[in-house]
Specification:
Blueprint lengths: L10 H4 L10 H4 L10 H5 L11 H4 L3 H16 L37 H37 L1
């Protein structure tokens, strides 16, 4: 007699709760052909970082998922869709990539700051420098006016 450990279990046995399978957008909209030029439709199957959503999340069948993936790949090749989107996020604190060690993989950057943080800091400093330059120009103009009034 076989023991209970050796019996193959189905997915239903592992999860006794009933769940409703998600219906695909393609079924709801009655889409018969997935065209790579239909960027709006393909965009519904992509995440905010331009990754293709998986079957479970999108609710597609295997064949639909293959067609969507191929259409997205062709649209990316034709430059209709991006390969990746940059998400602007700044990390604060934390140990960074090198785990808080000095002289690690972060290229000598201090505090483990990531590239986005250092770029935003440099942009902020450039803007502040531009504002300070405008103030200096105003100061120079006021000095020139004062010199002209003294000469007159």
């Amino acid at each position: 007699m076989a023991s209970k450990k050796n019996k193959a279990r189905s997915a239903r046995d592992l999860n006794p709760r009933k769940f409703k399978k998600k219906t695909s957008v393609l079924v709801i909209d009655k889409v018969e052909y997935i065209d790579y030029k239909d960027v709006d439709l393909l965009g519904r199957f992509m995440s905010d970082r331009a990754k293709i959503k998986n079957r479970r999340v999108a609710g597609n069948t295997l064949q639909q998922q293959r067609e969507i993936a191929n259409a997205v790949k062709v649209a990316r090749e034709m430059a209709l869709l991006p390969y990746a989107k940059r998400v602007a996020s700044t990390r604060t604190g934390g140990r960074g990539r090198d785990g808080g060690r000095d002289g690690g993989r972060d290229g000598g950057r201090e505090g483990g700051r990531d590239r986005e943080t250092s770029l935003s800091d440099s942009v902020d400093s450039t803007v502040n420098d531009a504002v300070n330059d405008d103030e200096l120009i105003d100061d120079v103009e006021s000095i020139d006016e004062a010199i002209e009034t003294e000469e007159a």
